[in-house]
Amino acid sequence: MGKADASNIDFDMEGIMQMKYKEAAGLCNDLRTTYGHDIKCQATCLTGDDDRKTAAVYKDTFDYFAIMIHGGSMSDGWSIPVDDPFSGATWKVINEWLHAGIPASKLILAVTTNGLEAYMVNWLKAIIQKYGMAGMSVWQLKDLKSSISYQCIEDPSTQCGHPSPSTEVDGECCDPDSVTKIGSCKELGQDGCCGGAGGSALCQKV
């Protein structure tokens, strides 16, 4: 597609593009007319009521809608409680988009690595599978935690939060609220963090 030699295009519906869905849809159609109708167009959307309702108007033009369920981090105005993820603000927004009139197969959950925990990825993957959503996109992928592997993001059957054996946490405190180099003890559990140390105060080799 032109000098960029790209196959598809993503419209980031923020800043000067905020609420410019009509313009983005028009450009998408122009590109398809010029370069072929196999070009796929994605809108990466803010999640407020206006964006959701306007995006639905153009559901037949865009192939995908990536909904940004994060701010500067996964907890910046959002919440996915570890004990009950469905009780947080993030699920409320996802559920609203699932009922916006846009096919679930066109919806992508857009997350950021800042504040992203393994249990969040596992929960989001389950939602994607249950509702037949298009998938997940990750901002700042290079900063992904070691407890979240590429495989656990890409493979629905692989659970995140089980790092390979390592000696990096040897001797570190493993109280429930402590954090080691490979993740939080609350996330990993005593066995994952302390190598089966149970109630021991110090981490062992894992």
TrEMBL record:
Top-level taxon: Eukaryota
Cross-referenced InterPro entries: GH (IPR017853)
Name under which the protein is recorded: GH18 domain-containing protein
Record organism: Symbiodinium pilosum
